[in-house]
Design goal:
- This protein has 630 residues and is of the alpha+beta class.
- 36% of the residues lie in helices and 24% in strands.
- It has 18 helices and 28 strands.
- It has a 16-stranded mixed beta sheet that branches.
- α7 packs across α10 and α11 packs across α12.
- The chain is elongated, with a radius of gyration of 35 Å.
Length: 630
């Protein structure tokens, strides 16, 4: 059957067409020839355009902008093939893409362009050859100066911003390596400063993927599925374990917290590998990674579980500096500077409602105030975000927030009642404060039933608690949500801030974690009677504290915090110091002599028990509530 079809087709072209052609007139024949030529010409143009189309396989995509991905024009063959080996691929953004880039830049607080690169494996034999000499890679932008007046690429401009690396740091013999590399834009460029295109140059074979536009970042991130190397607008080198240069990040991010701008944060992820290697369940070892940040040494504590912490650059002496590794550089899986959320901007002067996340290790001793508000700053513990941290300008501001609440919560003879200003104005609250969500819900319920009028700071406090879910408003009044509040003040003496920060934040953990409360209760209940009586006697001997010593919950919480507020090697000495105070000796001379006689060994043993527990669960220690120490 198939052969019969072929015969009919042959006969059609050999017999029918010539027969028909002979019957056509002269004009008809001319029209047929013109039609055939037009069909041939159109087909040729289509084939030519398809064969020499400018589009590459790479697309330009926008992370937070409503625009579909569109293909980028490839200027040369390498770009059209999206493959480079010992050369450079040049890309040009279309007019529509340029307009979208301008819109994104104008409507975003920062911008970067990122490209995905796959570095091909080289095989065992070639790998040894590759390692013998540098193998450069570059990624950068093309500007207006790279194109002539007619929009054609000239390739004569050498004044380009780009970043690069030696691919020997990344290439592998056994498998391909895919990574993202981004270059941020300055935050003050003119319209013609928007990139007109991009280029990728590589001495080793690489495949070029899509280009992504998003919020700017600087640093690196190996915790994501595809590793990221992010470079600031002035360009520079990037590598797997090289120092991190944040000096150029000031071209992207704000250098101060204002009503319109926020300073960036740095997210740091620390591997657990070295801690696991050096530790055992019986003998945990605190492995410390040292980084020099602009002359300021930061100590990062490795935990036996990989963890991520947040540094607010507003807490660093030099926010935009070079991070230089001084030990265990490969322990860091991520050091990435990025924007804080826009919702953290203060909407009303004098009122901060949204807390900024931070590791609390940088709070003690900090005096260089770059706060969002001149009177107080509001943080949340990055690892335990339901714990809110108030840092106030002085004791006056702190008391405006918390003094009335403290008398309601803890002060003997005042506890359980909301007192007007004239009753408590001449009394001292505390140098630092801590409150559970249950206590604060009870306080505001009591306020509603009283005739007391709250001051402005207390009204702000209630708004903060409601906004962050620490207390909840119901038809029956306020109920406990989740979380706790602690407060420090810059007026606290420099050295004391260290111990009070640990003291208050361990209170915060006590409030939010039932198991920790149970462990603390067991520890306090199991100490010998002399130690127990000494603790209770100390609190009774200090009338300025005003603690209700009949409140077992309060006493357990305070005992835990007094033990854990200093380093383990100082716990025994601290309680001997308490036993040497004149006011304490006059109240219980024999117990003071007993504590001095055994050098506070009971309390040191309790501290060792507490430290073992918090280290195993959270990687913390006596006197240390942060994973970072300044």
């Amino acid at each position: 059957m198939f052969s019969n079809v072929l015969v009919k087709i042959r006969d059609f072209f050999r017999i029918k067409i010539p027969s028909v052609w002979k019957k056509l007139g002269k004009i008809q024949k001319i029209l047929c020839i013109i039609i055939v030529l037009l069909v041939f010409l159109i087909t040729t143009v289509v084939v030519f355009r398809c064969a020499f189309a400018p589009h590459s396989a790479s697309r330009l995509c926008f992370d937070k902008y409503e625009l579909g991905a569109s293909r980028i024009d490839g200027i040369n063959e390498a770009a059209k093939r999206d493959y480079v080996k010992g050369g450079t691929a040049y890309y040009q953004f279309t007019k529509a893409q340029m307009e979208s880039l301008r819109n994104f830049y104008e409507n975003s607080s920062s911008m970067q362009i990122c490209v995905r690169i796959t570095l091909e494996k080289c095989g065992e034999l070639e790998y040894e050859q590759v390692l013998k000499e540098a193998k450069p890679f570059y990624f950068g932008f093309l500007s207006r100066n790279d194109f002539d007046s007619e929009g054609k690429f000239s390739n004569e401009n050498t004044d380009r911003i780009f970043c690069g690396t030696d691919l020997r740091n990344l290439v592998m013999a056994e498998q391909d390596f895919t990574f993202d590399v981004s270059l941020a834009l300055k935050n003050d460029i003119e319209d013609d400063g928007i990139p007109y295109g991009a280029f990728v140059s590589s001495s080793l074979p690489v495949r070029i993927g899509d280009f992504h536009v998003g919020q700017a970042k600087v640093g690196f991130d190996f915790t994501s599925e595809v590793p990221l190397f992010a470079v600031s607008p002035n360009g520079g080198n990037f590598a797997e374990s090289g120092d991190i240069d944040f000096t150029g990040a000031s071209l992207v991010f704000s250098a101060d917290n204002t009503s319109q701008t926020l300073m960036p944060k740095i997210s740091v992820a620390i591997s657990s590998a070295q801690a696991e290697k050096n530790s055992s369940p019986e003998k945990p070892v605190d492995v410390v990674c040292h980084v020099n940040a602009g002359g300021e040494k930061l100590l990062f504590h490795q935990y036996r579980k990989e963890n991520e912490v947040v540094i607010q650059t507003s807490l660093l002496k030099t926010p935009f500096c070079r991070f230089v590794y001084e030990s265990y550089p490969k322990a860091f899986r991520k050091i990435l500077m990025e924007e804080n959320e826009g919702k953290l901007l203060p909407r009303t002067k004098g009122k901060l409602l949204e807390p900024v996340p931070t590791d609390p290790g940088l709070l003690p001793g900090f005096k260089n105030v770059r706060w969002r508000d001149s009177e107080y700053e509001l943080y949340k513990w990055d690892r335990f975000p339901s714990v809110l941290i108030f840092d106030t300008r002085d004791y006056v501001v702190q008391d405006q927030f918390f003094k009335r609440l403290a008398f309601f919560a803890e002060k003997a003879r005042y506890k359980g009642t909301v007192h007007p200003d004239e009753v408590i104005k001449d009394f001292h609250g505390f140098n630092a404060y801590d409150f559970s969500s249950q206590t604060m819900a009870s306080f505001f319920n009591a306020v509603d039933k009283s005739q007391v009028i709250l001051n402005e700071k207390e009204k702000i406090l209630k708004e903060i608690l409601l906004r962050n879910g620490v207390i909840l408003s119901t038809s029956d009044g306020y109920v406990a949500g989740s979380g706790a509040v602690i407060s420090l003040s810059l007026q606290i003496p420099y050295g004391t801030r260290y111990s009070l920060c640990a003291h208050e934040l361990f209170h915060g953990l006590f409030f939010i974690d039932e198991e920790f409360r149970n462990v603390s209760g067991a520890a306090f209940g199991s100490i010998d009677s002399n130690s127990y009586d000494f603790v209770i006697g100390y609190f009774k001997s200090q009338p300025q504290l005003g603690y209700d010593t009949d409140d077992e919950y309060l006493m357990t919480n305070e005992f835990m915090a007094y033990v854990m507020q200093q380093h383990l090697d100082r716990v025994g000495k601290y309680f001997v110091h308490l036993g040497n105070r004149g006011s304490v000796i006059s109240y219980m001379p024999e117990l003071c002599q007993w504590v001095r006689g055994n050098n506070g060994v009971t309390f040191e043993d309790t501290g060792r028990f507490f430290e073992s527990y918090v280290n195993d669960r959270w990687g913390l220690a006596c006197g240390r509530v942060g994973m970072i120490v300044r």
